[in-house]
Write a structure and sequence with these properties.
Chains A, B, C: One of its GO terms (cellular component) is apoplast. Chains A, B, C: InterPro entries: Allene_oxi_cyc_Dirigent, Dirigent. Chains A, B, C: Pfam families: Dirigent (PF03018). Three copies of one chain form a homotrimer. Chain A is mainly β. Chain A contains one helix and ten strands; from the N terminus they run αββββββββββ. An eight-stranded antiparallel beta barrel of chain A has the order 2-4-5-6-7-8-9-10. In chain A, a hairpin with a 4-residue loop joins strand 6 and strand 7. Chain A is globular.
């Protein structure tokens, strides 16, 4: 009787947690290594170009949504921290630190929005997609979170994914790797996915 | 001894993965059919009206956040692709292609923001809620992702839900179903939820 | 033979759903009490200050992204409901209703964006992070959803978290607790997490 219970419980659990495995065809299933060890991780650098060195926007990869050509002329009352500034971006991402040869044709891009939200210091908030478009990786990761610039590293959430990153969740750790005034900044992103669906 | 281990393991797993089932009352539980077959799916059409045919905004369902009445006068330097333009929308959604009789009183609406993020081509990014308000379905789905307009279909993430869609996750596939200049566009959305909580 | 199957199934399930438990060290694991009873809950009040009583922005915690000092001068065609208005905020949050002694140095803050998206009535949409920075709690929760102001309470999604709230998911219920014209509003947020990772 007890063993029957086990059989029933085991079959019930099997159908509940791994229904995809019992199908004949190879099918997608949820994969968690552990919540301490990611099922997938990668380091990427985001390059955000506001103005190039000739002070032109011809190479820019982001645009201030509110005053597209006036990011350098902050509202005086905000104390130069751009409180309220919303910036739309479409930034190349690379595995190494170097800028890609072409800013437009990059295999990985970050597309979305960031905004400055402090009167006292530079502080930002991000919501964006990482778009992968190479033969090796195709799909998107969707992220959002607070970028507390005053802290050396800060974590944001990977809230979902598509394609090769179907349904993925995890955490991305941001670190400012370079900051050149209003022309360029580079963020290091250590992306760790803890729930993969492969 | 071995069978005791199994009993313990089975009981442990039972409590871990299906605690809600052992309660006396009917209670909500996580339901995954498989990660290939959605636990819920639906097709909806989103209608975004910028200007009506008399070039007025009286019927518009979206508003450019930056210059509410000047969407047609793009910043010249962006090459007509509206790079940096942020648009707030509150669009009716329908199960068929036809516009609803009333633009305001629709049982399903998409509320949120999209933005244009490319200098080379039309390319967008979305973050929004689908608000269901009928006798049959009540609640919201929350979505975000890159809308790579150049691709025939593109996937975004369903990152959460409330009410009848409590905690749901999945993927929505977008397809441009109609595009009439700056007056109107219609997106087909195939929404597939893979994690339901019922 | 049947019992062998059970052993295999049990071991398979054990490795699939609770890999972290079998490690020697203490490690993070997914914790769900049930989908009716949160694994963590809290009530917080969000204080959004647009203008102080002398009609100045010196104490403001939010900024209209589009016209940083002109929130009170709505576009006439929007009928006073600010359709299309995007507001960036960095609001103190408290456990009680009272404003914190200092608006800048608060242990809990909400950082992100809300926007007004209706021509007929006040209706909003939120995407933001709750940033915890005390000795007791450190980390962030990331939320998004429709704030249907006409309804007494409305639910939005907790789509992820970091630090002490690593990977958390759940629902937050909003209620307007105070509304003082264009100077101040207070939202009560009942946050219930159903998936914790501890």
């Amino acid at each position: 009787m007890a063993s029957l219970t086990i059989v029933v419980a085991a079959i019930f659990l099997l159908s509940l947690t791994s229904a995809s495995v019992v199908h004949g065809r190879s099918s997608r299933r949820r994969f968690v290594r552990s919540y301490d060890e990611p099922c997938m991780e990668m380091r990427l650098y985001l390059h955000d170009i506001l103005y190039d060195y000739s002070n032109s926007t011809s190479n820019s990869t982001s645009a201030a949504a509110t005053k597209p050509t006036a990011l350098a002329t902050a509202v005086p009352s905000t104390g130069g921290t751009f409180f309220g500034q919303v910036v739309v971006f479409n930034d190349p991402m690379t595995e190494g630190r170097a800028l890609p040869p072409s800013l437009e044709e990059t295999a990985v891009r970050a597309q979305g929005v960031y905004l400055y939200n402090s009167k006292e210091a530079f502080n930002a908030w991000f919501a964006f997609s990482i778009v992968f478009n190479s033969t090796g990786r195709r799909g998107t990761l969707n992220l959002m979170g607070a970028d507390i610039i005053a802290e050396k590293t800060r974590d944001i959430s990977v809230v979902g994914g598509t394609g090769d990153f179907f349904m993925s969740r995890g955490v991305a750790t941001l670190r400012t790797d370079a900051f050149e005034g209003f022309t360029y900044f580079r963020l290091q992103m250590d992306i760790k996915l803890y729930e993969c669906y492969v």
